[in-house]
Task: inverse folding
């Protein structure tokens, strides 16, 4: 087998490609500009994107810092990084590693950003301490997380469906991306990391999927396998049937699913 064929056959890379094709346009892509703005990223800066995934934010940062700046981007998942590398992006230093143990020296960056990773880290406070360690004095941190499930009834409905149709474990997995969406819990997480003066700003985006089937597929094929969740076709069909009913309030006549997507962005400045 040619080297290229072997790469394309990596099942986890296919998952990461689905993430990039379905979830980035529906949910994640719209946040790169607000997060980069929150960290005041500008020309010539050295910037780090933690939990970069397939690189949507890092690519935006590379445009902003220009040829005099530098962008580093880190993720723990080699399949996500493989897709990020394929997507390109001017001279981004992609690195595999853990947010809790950043492989960079102290005070290396003018800004550190991270979108939709913190709530998935095993030790979020340690990751925040690391982000502050690698920031230079006066440098800015901006971290985005989804609001809580109470504010996202469409995903609340999906959690109920997965719990009923598949089981508690899958319902619980779908809860985790929203687990730091309570502003008090989020503030405590930053305070426990020694960042007592963090500022939390609430913003509202829009989630948009072409149809209910694509919304379900985006989870089933775009990240569930990373969490060791594999569903057979019959189960996925059953989930889609239930979701078509539950998501009717958010479904347009042409089939597009659209609903508000509230997000919390936390900013802090390194002293
Ligand atoms: C929901 S994705 C967000 C990716 C990207 N920031 C975006 O906006 O598309 C979460 C990412 O966090 C990464 N991740 C999870 N735990 C991590 C850890 N401990 N250290 C570094 N990255 C981690 C995952 O591999 C995944 O790429």
Result:
């Amino acid at each position: 087998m040619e080297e290229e064929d072997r790469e394309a056959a990596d099942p986890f890379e296919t998952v990461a490609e689905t993430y990039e094709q379905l979830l980035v346009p529906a949910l994640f892509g719209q946040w790169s500009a607000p997060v980069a703005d929150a960290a005041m990223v500008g020309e010539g800066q050295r910037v780090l994107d933690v939990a970069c995934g397939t690189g949507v934010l890092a690519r935006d940062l590379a445009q902003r810092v220009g040829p005099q700046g530098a962008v580093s981007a880190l993720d723990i998942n080699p399949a996500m990084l493989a897709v990020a590398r394929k997507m390109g992006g001017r001279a981004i230093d992609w690195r595999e590693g853990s947010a809790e143990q950043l492989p960079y020296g102290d005070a290396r960056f003018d800004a550190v950003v991270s979108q939709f990773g913190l709530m998935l880290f095993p030790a979020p406070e340690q990751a925040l301490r690391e982000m502050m360690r690698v920031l230079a004095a006066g440098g800015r941190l901006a971290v985005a997380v989804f609001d809580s499930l109470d504010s996202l009834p469409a995903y609340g409905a999906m959690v109920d469906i997965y719990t009923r149709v598949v089981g508690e474990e899958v319902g619980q997995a779908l809860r985790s991306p929203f687990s730091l969406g309570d502003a008090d819990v989020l503030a405590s997480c930053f305070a426990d990391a020694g960042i007592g003066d963090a500022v939390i700003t609430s913003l509202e985006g829009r989630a948009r999927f072409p149809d209910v089937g694509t919304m379900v597929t985006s989870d089933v094929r775009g990240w569930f396998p990373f969490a060791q969740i594999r569903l057979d076709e019959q189960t996925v069909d059953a989930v889609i049937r239930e979701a078509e009913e539950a998501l009717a309030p958010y479904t347009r006549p042409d089939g597009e699913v659209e609903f508000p997507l509230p997000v919390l962005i936390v900013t802090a400045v390194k002293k």
User: Anything to note?
Assistant: Residues 1-7 have pLDDT under 50 and may be disordered. The longest helix spans residues 11-28.
